[in-house]
Amino acid sequence: MVVVPGYTLLLACLLLAGFTSPGFAQQTAPTASIRVNMQEEKAPVSPTLHGIFMEEISHAFDGGLYAELIQNRSFEEGVLPPGMKLVAKPDGGLKMELESLPAGVPTNKWDMPWPWNGNCGWDTNRALIGWSLQNEGGAKGEMQLTEANPMNAASSRSLAMTIAPPDKPEGRVALINSGYWGINVQAGVSYDLKFYLRPGTYTGQLTASLEGKDGKVLATCDLGRIAPGTSWQKHTAKLKAAGTEPEAHFVLSFRGQGALQVDWVSLFPPTYKNQPNGLRPELAKYLQDLKPSFIRYPGGCYVEGLSWKSAPDWREMVCPPEERPGMWGYWQYRSTDGFGYHEFLQFCEDIGAEALYVSFAGMTVHPENNWPLDQIDPVIQQTLDAIEYATGPVSSKWGARRAAMGHSKPFPLKYVEIGNEHPPALYGDYYKKFRAAIKANYPDMTVIMSMYWSGLNPGAIARAGDDTIDMIDEHAYRDAAWIRSNFDYFDKYRRKPWKIYVGEYASHHGGGDWYGGMGDSLYLMMAERNGDLVKMASYAPLFCNVNKRDWGINLIEYDSSRSYAHASYYVQKVFAENRPDVNLAIATDLEPKPDPNQPLLGGKFGLGAWNTQTEFKELRIYDEKDNLVYSDDFKTLENWETPGTGVWRIENGVLQQTDDGKSPAMLLLKARRVGGSEGFLMFFNASGPDRFLFCNYGAAGNTFSAIQDRGVPDGCAFKGGRSRPGKIENERWYDISLVVKRDAAQMLLDGEVVSNARVEHLSQFFATAGYDRNNKTVVVKATSYSSKPVRAEIQLDGAGNIGRSGKHIVISSPGQYDENSLDDPHRIVPRELPLPRVSEHFSVELPPYSVNVLRIPATAK
Ligand code: AHR
Question: What is the pLDDT of residues 484-510, one digit of tens each?
């Protein structure tokens, strides 16, 4: 019997020597054949395919693309979103809840289930985030937030300070802003400072400076003597840096006496295209370099709001930045909206992209908290006004506002999406109503219907009606292995009157590693070759400040001074730069094939529990002929090892199993739960504490049992793992058993099957072909998951004139799980190689783990 006082995931492993990892024993070098038929054109590739999606998440704008250097510049961070109130949590903390429920929604419907409860956490400490006060040389200062004497209607709070003078000449009250995890100060660069003071009773000197961690002054500006007064005064200055420090801070130094108020402190470095209220140049450049055909904005969950009162309203953003109230966003921080609707449209124009605006649909992130459909007209009007702002004549109300914001010409708004990821079928009715109103006024506008995280929302589609939908936004956060076994996903898609926009896609693996990047290349191939259906696609999320990661896998990451793009970025760039006009018929093959007899399941067996105390006894292992090959009554634990955490006291031991590894092995065991919140874990195919398959009895808070996957062997996919609902009870002995075959496993509880799973080989090679008419070039895209170089044999059937040489653009990495990082930003980037001696039949070597574009100048016969 093993007693497991579990408080975390415990893993004990029995070494089963006969189980081996699956191999792709390739003695001969792999060879891929790629046969392109230049006479057979397939679907056109959508010219608008490659775009961008941007949302305020992980400090994508504030502390990211938007170049503002002061965090919490208007002291509004602690302002509750409209429609919300704070309530006490049992742990003493506070959380937000709706002030009141919409009419007709019973209180018990408002239990804030996941994911909404996660986003209703409230951190009172954030109110002054970014700011601190330091008293030096005997000076005495205090600060607190105040709602008295607001600076303007948008500013509900400011900072009230009391100052007593220093007794040493070098003394001061230093009001410090840390920026967004440091301010990047570069020698020779000028920074534009703007802030507002209500001097109150204060008399004394004021200085602004940028200072390093050790107190070194990098830039300073004397703002002179401040005299008492009761009106808000604007101060501007330039701070020219004499030194460099990537994580400096900003300081307002007070040497005087009295009580005053400070608000709206803003500091800008030089910006993209030197625009006022502009963008961080190198982050904007990443986007410009992608040459996206469109940009989707502003969300994402961000558009939904926690309550319908707290959904972002673009109308509050088309004014000077000081007059924008900002909004507490879904990702648990407040947005300044400095990068607002106007700036978004301006950026689209700047980089030649069409604008895709996502409007609030009147449905929030909580399915019950919706604007009633029969009262939705004001929300529809808000959307119509957004279109008018972007495209209307200057004689129109909102066109005039656009002109007042400095842009008389219309902006290139081509698409409007109604809301984001609303699962109820009822959403179909909302879409229909919005679309009818938009089409009545703007018949050429493409009105996009949003789906959920992945796949379609058939209920909503049915309610809206196929014929009154322009385009559907199907999100696709997919496991990178899913893509390898679903390469024909769009090929099989039933064509309807509407088209597809994949508004958010990402192949998830690691922290955004090369395996994920290769998955994205497949996803884009799938989209390109179904250009009759898939018109647009954008990766998500786009940006992440590494100091506040709201989402695991992102495209571009940065801190205050450094940035890098994940390999997926380069995949998109290379695909966009090499987008053919039309697909060509292609046939591919890879030799040698994997040995069909080789076992795919192997590795080690283990026992464990998650937050649960369990006992195990009577372990029995049988071979396929029902011969008992191992038994353990746990008198000693010498055959076990404990690679994970826990209190297992097990010596290293090895069972020399005589089975050849192809046969099924059955494990039988008695187990009982003594206490805790879940049931038993039985691991198999384990190669370590991070990589295993497992029978999870009483998973997810003791609600179901299933075989689950934490890492199949390299090159394999996990299939199945169906679950059976039910609980594991305390103090009851269960028979738990597992049958493992060459490529399949069965999980049993008291003799009954609760879950089956299979593991199968994934294809290692994928390719598409197309034709670039302008450049008279065949474009072959090929992704190889082989760990060895692949010799690709290219055959161009039906080719007429073929140029002598082409181009080979390749992105590869020696390890499939390699990643770019802040410290190693260019580890995985595209390289351009010559492609000499091309002909009707030629060969080229594709590196291990590579995404390749072959450009072959050729015309059809
Ligand atoms: O991209 C991150 C989030 O994922 C988006 O806000 C949402 O639309 C999706 O669920």
Answer: 999 999 999 999 999 999 999 999 998
> Cα separation of 166 and 771, whole Å?
75
Distance 108 CA to ligand 1 centre (A): 27
**Residue 477 contacts by C-beta under 8 Å, 6 or more apart in sequence?**
453, 454, 504, 505, 506, 508, 540
What local confidence, expressed as pLDDT, does residue 720 receive? 80
Tokens linked to 412: 């290139």
Radius of gyration for the alpha carbons in the chain, expressed in angstroms and rounded: 31
How many other β-carbons are positioned within 10 Å of the β-carbon of residue 124?
10
pLDDT higher at 229 or 364: 229
- Least confident range from 192-201, 334-343, 728-737: namely 728-737
H-state helical runs in 364-492 = 377-391, 397-404, 427-441, 458-464, 480-485
DSSP code at position 845: E
Ligand 1, residue 503: give the atom nearest the CA: 8
Mean pLDDT for the stretch of residues 389-394: 98
DSSP string for 631-690: EE--S--TTEE--SBS-------EE---S-SSS-EEEEEEEEEEEESS--EEEEEEEETT
How far apart are the CA of 301 and the centre of ligand 1, in A? 6
Name the residue at shortest CA distance from atom 9 of ligand 1: 300
pLDDT bin (cut points 50, 70, 90) of residue 107 is low
Contact 642, 579 (CB under 8 A): no
Within 6 Å (CB) of ligand 1, which residues are found?
55, 57, 299-301, 420-421, 453, 504, 540-541, 551
The string of pLDDT tens digits covering residues 150-208 is: 999 999 999 999 999 988 888 999 999 999 999 999 999 999 999 999 999 999 999 99
Tokens of 778: 């065949």
Say which residues have a Cβ less than 8 Å from residue 406's Cβ, sequence separation at least 6: none
Q: Whose CA is nearest to atom 4 of ligand 1?
A: 300
Amino acid at residue number 355: A
Q: Which two tokens stand for residue 709?
A: 């996957």
Residue type, 546: V
Contact 736, 673 (CB under 8 A): no
